[in-house]
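Q: Convert this sequence to C-alpha cells.
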Amino acid sequence: MTSEKVLNIVLDEINFKFDISNMHGVNLRKALITPVLQEYKSSMDRSKSFNLWTVLEANEDGSGYKIFYDEEENSFGLGTKSEKEELLCLGNYGTFLETLESM
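A:
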C-alpha cells in the first residue's frame, strides 16, 4: 500500500466534501494530512505494536486525536499520543466517517 492509495480511500469516502465535521469541529481541510506509516502501540498492552497509516491529526500541533488507516483490517481507527509521546492505538471504528464521528 502507498500513501497515495490510502489518501484515495479517504477522499473516495468523503467524496471531496471537505465541509464534513464532527462535534469537535474538526476542519478536514486542515486536519487531513498526507498519510504516513507509523508505529502505534496498543493502548491496552504496550508490548504490542502495529504499523498504521496516520491520515488525520485533529490539532495542527500533533496533540489530540489522530485517525489512522489499518490496511490489514481495511478499517479506520482512533489514536493519540501518550505522555511519553508514543502513538497509541485506541481501537478501530470502521469507516473514515464513522471514526470521525466517534472522535
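The longest helix spans residues 3-14.
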